[in-house]
Amino acid sequence: MSEQERPRVLVLGHLPPSQGGPATYLTTIFSSRLAERFELRPYNIGRPPKPAVHDNFGYSGLWNAGVRRMLIAVVITLRHVLLFPLELVRFRPAIVHVHTAPYWVFWETAVYVTVCRLFRVPCALQLHYSFRLFYSACSSVTRWLVRAVLRLATTFVVICKEDLGFLREIGADRVAAVYLPNCVDAGALRAGSCGEPEAGRGGVAPEVLFLGGSDCRRKGLPELLAAIPAVAARQPEAKFRLVAVPPDLVESLLPAEHRSRCAVDGWVSGDEKLGRLARADLFVLPSHGEGMPIAILEAMAVGLPIVATDVAGIPDMVRDGQEGLLVPPGDVPALAAAIASLLGDRELRRSIGGRASARVTEEFDLPTGVENWDHLYRSLLAGRAGRAAAGRAP
User: Fold this and answer.
1) 386 band by pLDDT with thresholds 50, 70 and 90
2) What does pTM read for this prediction?
3) Residue 394 clears pLDDT 70, i.e. is over it
4) Comparing 195 with 371, which gets the higher pLDDT?
5) Would you state the pLDDT for residue 201?
6) Is 374 helix (H, G, I), strand (E, B) or coil?
7) Is the Cβ–Cβ distance between 35 and 370 less than 8 Å?
8) 199 confidence band (pLDDT: 50, 70, 90)
9) What is the average pLDDT across 172-176?
10) What interhelical angle do 221-234 and 332-343 show, nearest 10?
């Protein structure tokens, strides 16, 4: 397909230097073969990366990172909003794909969805979080506004299967919704993580990997720290690598006698992150709220068994007892037991890790993701063509 024939798609989302799963996901898609079928134009609505802090989620996340960052974020957001109509006029996209998150980001992207409606450009609004969890945390007035935003979008894209049923439960049947799971480039991840492990993958000191970020409490870091003494009692050689977490939270919650078994790192990406995955024996994410975590898919792709909570889109990826072990959120004894049981059985880790890697290849690999995005875009284009034909009818 020639450059002129490719439909134009304007993709809004948090791109680097923003950090986290959505930024990684969008970067992967932009470098995929989808760019051979569509002319993809990124529109970065990201802000400066947040530091790893105790709690940077929800509406309070705007100011929890400090007044200076808050003011910078507000100025940058206003610039994004004001320049967006100009970008529509200059690029003239056939489709706009808006990637959003709950709370403040959702209301920012509501402006972009509204502008697309005014310009009569088909718009897919994709939420990178559990819609059920976000909606349930809203007030009655805010819920009405959320439903109004969803009706403005041409299609609402969810990444948790349960959200499709939840939309029917709340009477949002008029919202056109589709399920579009996340994906990773499994081949590239495996190639990049094939170096010799330093400690894990069968070594004398099995290593548990946790990847945090700017809101470690939501990710379940306190529960993991509370579980470490119980794990150590059953598996004395166990080591823990805690990435992108605030050191002061570790020091305040973890007993001093167990701190030596924990390596605390700052934010890592690229080859550094692949190195952490290569050395690990087990990936843990005891989160209280998620969408479909890219970090879990990356760990599964390189053959790591998973211990995680059964929330939002995690059960769509990890089936309990097959690709990993799932525990209720906040259940420290269950979390400790799951980690210890896998650390104590090397063959079980290998078999579960093998199934995890195979599942990513079958359902969440990049080629499948490209086809899913292609189908979404083709359906939006077909709908636009149908509306245009109806408008020309006598």
Assistant:
1) low
2) 0.91
3) no
4) 371
5) 58
6) helix
7) no
8) very low
9) 86
10) 50
| Cβ partners under 8 Å of residue 49, min gap 6 | 17, 18, 19, 214, 267
Q: Which two tokens stand for residue 114?
A: 């509204």
Tokens of 260: 């030596």
For residue 101, which of 210, 242, 218 has the smallest C-alpha distance?
218
Report DSSP letters for 248-298, one per residue. Answer: HHHHHHS-GGGGGGEEEE----HHHHHHHHHH-SEEEE--SS-SS-HHHHH
Query: What are the distances in angstroms from CA 173 to CA 160, 164, 168, 180, 375?
Result: 17, 10, 5, 18, 22
- Read off the tokens for 315: 């059960």
What structural domains does the chain harbor?
A: 8-183+366-392 (3.40.50.2000), 186-364 (3.40.50.2000)
Confidence at residue 20, expressed as pLDDT on a 0 to 100 scale: 81
Distance CA 7, CA 340 (A): 51
Contact between 242 and 284 under an 8 Å Cβ cutoff? The reply is no
Contact 49, 17 (CB under 8 A): yes
List, in sequence order, every beta strand (DSSP E) within the chain: 8-13, 39-44, 95-100, 123-127, 155-158, 177-179, 207-211, 239-243, 262-265, 282-285, 306-309, 324-327
Mean per-residue pLDDT of the chain: 90
Tokens representing residue 385 in the block: 């063509």
